[in-house]
Amino acid sequence: MLDTNVLMHDPAAIFRFEEHDIYLPMVVLEELDANKKGLSEASRNVRQVSRFLDDLMRDATRDQIMSGLALPSNLSGNHGKAPSSGRLFFQTQRLSGTLPDTLPGTGNDNAILAQTLALQALHPEARVVLVSKDINLRIKAAVVGVHAEDYFSDRTIEDADVLYTGHDPLPADFWERHGKDMRSWKDGTRTFYEVSGPAVAKWTPNQFVHEERDGGIEAMVRRVQGTTATLELVRDYRGERNGVWGIHARNREQNYALNLLMDPEVDFVSILGPAGTGKTLLTLAAGLVQTLEHNRFAEIIMTRVTIPLGEDIGFLPGTEEEKMEPWMGALMDNLEVLTHSAEGGSWGRQATQDLLRNRIKIRSLNFMRGRTFLNRYVILDEAQNLTPKQMRALVTRAGPGTKIVCLGNIAQIDTPYLTETTSGLTFVVSRFQGWAHAGHVTLVRGERSRLADHASEAL
Question: Which one, out of 135, 187, 338, 430, has a CA that is 20 to 30 A from the CA of 78?
């Protein structure tokens, strides 16, 4: 038994239950009809569900609908699920299901509960499960004796703890087991190693590996072929000579992030980390160097999801860029850091800030559909609040010469129905793992201030 919010969340949900039969009560169809109008993501999903149902019911007879419609088994993008082999049933008769007197009212949730109880009585040989993303409905279902579950098929991974971090320590005996037939060579300022052994099979391109001891190597995996991998020593941006727009990495993970951000061979970078780890500052510094000094990109485009932390303050005046400015406090704060050392006093800093802002454009996500970015450095801030579908729509905007950087913290999700395992940011980190032109780093150490570090731990 599917609740309406499952279909509004994932329009292809009816194809993702493998061998199980699916039942849609009439109240769910009524709720879909009531929510079909509008330009929101939920309304678009409802219209897509209606199209799916219309395709399934086309040319179906009354008897076929009564006995259940076969679900297509060749649907692509099935989230790793087995092909559908169950059937889709609609409510074709009035079921006499009565709720306990402890549940007053005649709301749609109670109607769905009543239908589930009636279905249990009608099919005692089957296990009836109510699938809903509404926590309160699942609680009420447990109270009245209905087995209810959350919708799990939209999860990219089973647990956020197993999400790819982008960097791994080398085993203590790595060189004893893998250094026998090692080759090394230099290409300009770059140093490469070719190693073979059992540990190599688990590596992916653009993953970082390091030795835990002081002075140990830090390298990026460039290629993996079976049990042979090519490593390149990373550039050390922690030294005074290798700063990026006056910014230096303060820890190993920040150094890895700068290596990815400055690498012209990497088109897509995702950086995860809690507040204060330097995600936005490092990304902006790398973008300014490559835009203003190297002329690799024409301009920097920055955008984010506009979800307020507290109460909404209402409509904002001005153009698209002016409306987005209150949401871009992180950009303004980091620009102040990047222009703080400008010569010429306050006038010089102001002139530098105006120059930089001419090359940094703030854009709203609402107007991204249909656009193509050529030679742009695109920053998606707070990307954990995007759904996988929205993330796909944004990343596919990239044209030739464009680099996309996704920043976020999956522990701070404000979008309803999104979790750490279903966020669009988790989705792209998992799906881009192993692609030769994508890289990911999870930052772990806060570098903002001792107060912010203590607050992150104590609060």
Answer: 135
165-201 burial code (b ≥16 CB/10 A, e <16): bbbeebeeebeeebeeeeeeeeeeeeebbbbbbebbe
| Residues comprising the chain, all counted | 459
Taking residues 197-201, report their average pLDDT: 87
Residue 418 maps to which CATH number?
Answer: 3.40.50.300
CA torsion, points 318, 321, 325, 328, in degrees to nearest 10?
160
d(CA 99, CA 148): 16
- Burial (CB count <10 Å: 0-12, 13-18, 19+), residue 220: buried
**Whether 406 contacts 271, CB under 8 Å:** yes
Handedness of CA 196, 200, 201, 205 (dihedral sign): negative
CA-CA distance, 116 to 106, in Å (whole number)?
A: 15
pLDDT for res 267 = 96
Phi, psi of 87 (to 5 degrees): -125, 155
Tell me, what CATH number does 224's domain have? 2.40.30
Do residues 325 and 393 share a domain? yes
Report d(CA 151, CA 349) in Å as an integer: 52
Distance of alpha carbon 267 from alpha carbon 254, whole angstroms: 18
DSSP 260-297: HHT-TT--EEEEE--TTS-HHHHHHHHHHIIIIIS--S
Long-range contacts of the stretch 57-62 (C-beta < 8 A, 24+) = none
Angstrom distance (rounded) from CA 132 to CA 138: 7
Distances in Å between the Cα of 128 and the Cα atoms of 1, 124, 208, 297 are 7, 9, 47, 56
Average pLDDT over residues 227-246: 89
Residues 171 and 304 in one domain: no
The average pLDDT across 386-399 equals 89
Nearest Cα to 391, choosing from 419, 429, 352, 357? 429
Domain that holds residue 14: 4-149
Angstrom distances, CA of residue 266 to CA of 226, 234, 347, 404 = 22, 14, 37, 9
Between CA 152 and CA 43 the distance in angstroms is 21
- Determine if the pTM surpasses 0.85: no
Question: What's the structural domain count of the chain?
Answer: 3
Q: State how far the alpha carbon of 55 is from the alpha carbons of 52, 59, 70, in Å.
A: 5, 9, 12
Residue 27 CA to residue 40 CA, distance in Å, equals 22
Distance CA 258, CA 351 (A): 27
* Chain position carrying tokens 């076969």: 70
Q: Is it the case that residue 309 has pLDDT exceeding 50?
A: no
| Burial grade of 4 (CB within 10 A; 0-12, 13-18, 19 or more) | buried
Greater model confidence, 157 or 87: 87
